[in-house]
Structure formats: C-alpha cells, structure tokens
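Quick one before lunch.
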Amino acid sequence: MIKDLHDYLDYLSSRRRLAHVKDRVSAELEITAFTDREDKERRYDGRALLFSNVDGYDMPVATNLFGSMSTLKELFDGFSISDTISSIMHPKHAANTASMLKGAKAMLDSKPKVVSFSRSGYEKLGSLDELPILKVWPKDAGKFITLPVVVTESPEDGSLNAGVYRMQVFDDTTTGMHWQAQKGGSLHAYEAMKRGKKLDVSVAIGTDPFNMLSAATPLPQGINEFAFAGMARRARTLLAKNGSYPPVPANSEIIINGYVEPGEKRTEGPFGDHTGYYSIPEEANVFHIKEIYAKKDAVYAASVVGFPWSEDGAIGLFMMDYLKPMVSLVNDSIIDIYLPPEGLFTDVCFIKVKKRFPGEAKKAMFSVLGLGQLSFVKMIVAFDDDIDIKDLSRVLWAMASRVEPERDIQVIKGTPTDTLDHTANLPAFGSKVMIDATKKSKGEGYGREWPETISMSNDLIDAVGRKWRSLG
Ligand SMILES: Cc1cc2nc3c(=O)[nH]c(=O)nc-3n(C[C@H](O)[C@H](O)[C@H](O)COP(=O)(O)O)c2cc1C
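Model of the flavin mononucleotide complex:
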C-alpha cells in the first residue's frame, strides 16, 4: 500500500517514472518550463519531476505526479467501480459468494476513519510565503496553489466534499477559491450563504495518490471522494480532524485551515489554463487562512497545465475511460464515450450508441448533457455502433455521410457551460449543439432507402490475404 506522497515518489522512482532535478530552479515559471517540456515530449507518459533545490525554499516541489497513463492504470488495476456496484446491487452477482465478498470488502474500505489531528511530526508555519508556490505562466495574476485537495462539509447534512480547485495567492493570509458554480465546494458555500454562515474549509497539499486523484475525479455529487479513495486503495482512508475544520487525509504533507465568507468575492485570474488560453478574470470566493501546518520533511505537490498535452489531460483521459461503465449503467444505449483531449474534455464529446428505436441517439445525447460534469459538454455527436469513436477519420466520415444539417443538428440555447469556456457571452452560461450522426430510419421520417455500407466478404478478404503474401 502507498502510505503517503513520499511513498508514492519511491514507488514512481522504482519504476523509473520519476526524474530528480537537482539543479537550482525558480518556482517562478522555471518549474513550469521543465514540466511542460516533459509533458509535450512524452505525451501522457511523462515522468513525475522532483525539484529538490528550489530557489529561496527548503521544501522540495513535485510536479506531474499523474502525467503518465501507465501509472494511472497501474494504480487502479483490479478496482472497477462498476463491478463493485454490480457486486453489491446486481442480483446475478449477489448470488455469487466471491463477488459478494468483494463487494463487502469494498464497502468496508469505503468508510473513512476519522481521528483527531495530532501536531506531532508537523510544524506550524507563519505564512504562505514559506511554501514554494508556483507562478505558472508569465501572464498569470500571481502565484497559484494548483493541486490542493479542498475539503468542505455540507452545512445542510454534514456530508464531506473534496475537490481540486486552484487557489490564487492574494496575500499572506488570503487566497482565491476557484470552485466552479456546479462543483461540490461551491454548493456547500451556497448552502452556508443561505444560512448566513461562513464555511470552514480545510486544504491538503500532497497526500497519497488515491486521495489526490479522487478529489480531481468527477464523481457523482453525493459520493464521498475519500470513500472512493478507500475502495481504490483497498484500505480505508484515514482522516484527521482539527477542531471545527473539515477533516483532511491524515497523511497530508501540508494542511491549511481557514474559512470562506460566502458573500465575499474578489477578482481571480488571469491564469494560464488547460484550454491553452489565459482564463478571463472573474469574481471568486476568498479563502481566509487561520493555520498552516507542514510535515517536517514536507514535499510541496503542484500541477502544471497548459495547451494539450498536460497532466490534467492524462487524468481526464484515464478517468473518462475508467468511469464510462457508469455512464452505460445509467443509459444502456451508450456503448462508448470519448472526450478527445483536443476538445478540451468538456467541449467535444463523441458517443457510440446501440440504436434500437427512433430517436434513441438523441435520447442518449440528452442523458449525457444532464449527467454531472458531463453537463459541461458543448458539442456532442452520436454515432452508430459500427464507428470507432476514437478514430478521427471514421468520425469525420460518419459526420459527412450520416448528417443532414437541417434535420440532424440542434442548437440548445440557455444552458450551463464550463466556466473556462471564454466563447460564451456570459460566464458559465451559453448553448450546446447536438449532432445525430447515426443512420436514419423510416421511423425517423427518412423516406428514402438508406444505402448499404460497402464491404467485402471475410472469405474473400482471407483468400486475398493468402495470395497477398506471395507479393513479398
Ligand atoms: C490540476 C487540476 C486543477 C483543477 N482546477 C480546478 C479549478 O480551479 N476549479 C474547478 O472547479 N475545478 C478544477 N479542477 C477539476 C475538479 O477538481 C474536478 O471537477 C472535481 O471533480 C471537483 O470535485 P467536486 O465534483 O467534488 O467539486 C481541476 C482538476 C485538476 C486535475
């Protein structure tokens, strides 16, 4: 079991997936330049980087902890969320003892264990200045904490939420809190505002990989990220609670406690984001810091994003592949779903559908557009089950040969959009386009005979294959 960030760095190092940068580097832009080069050269198979000599700081910095798809696959190997749900709920599997035991173990692992925060092993820091926080891109508004696990408790029902939301350093004791309106932390701030209360917030920087990845994963609202981390790790998450602050992973390198006054906003950004653009400055909540603790040998964890390819792309691609069985669980006509990295994950979405009745492709598209963070998708295209939606040449061929624009393209106005989508006239509010690139049937009003796709018999292909070999 990977115990904490130090253990994870050793794990990566033993697999030659960690590069140790011993040269003196600056936290301002230079760590970005190193990390971005690694990401662009190795495209989703980048090494994590450990910078042990950061100008002006004693604390090392680790970046690109999740820049490798192979590492992500390895970490989650053998844990399938949809199998786990099936083993708990599906009558066919529940009758099978092995499957039941697996489900029962996952349920036990899913229960976080909360202990009191102990200061031993930690030292209290005077201010944020003591942390090697990065200035990521030249025109960023300042320094940003980029891989924080931000934990809040619902004022309504006490449930916990953990999300990764960037935090712009405003001064020694305040930062921005860039949780988008639809995200868990923001919903808790909304609940606090309705009650006229401030919201206590805890932030963990650097913990074991499962806690960090779970916080970054678009899990359905209401699923506790530390429960998911426990199932994936196959061991319960240990949380430490300090006074009234929400608990954080007990293996955190750095812990920041403070609060957000929900009505208080301040301009946040610009910040060089994964869209490849600087985000437009917008109003964001302000986080007031009361206490900062750091392990005596703490490593500061950061993420660098930018024009694709970067670390969040590897996380996004892996998580989409990983979570797609859950989409099919909700809508069984969706066989596959692909959010191409070049489509910035939230903006372009392809789905492959098993079309059994008129209009089923549209039904499937509507369901995606209403599903959790998939509701950020701006352009969605549905394909038949003969199209490999990861193959752009087949995707374009189907769009060219199965779409009649007037009939098959719908624009839906007045919808939520990703806050990062600067094309919308208003922040987080715009429109969507739905394209039905499936073959049309008589039941859908197509009055002609849909032509057959050209193909050759397998027997003939095999026969030619045998003769082909003689061509040398
Ligand atoms: C490196 C990185 C940075 C992120 N920054 C933000 C951010 O600034 N704001 C935001 O709302 N989501 C951000 N996300 C995405 C959220 O972490 C993700 O949507 C997560 O599901 C949020 O958790 P929640 O659904 O519990 O709110 C970031 C993800 C990664 C990997």
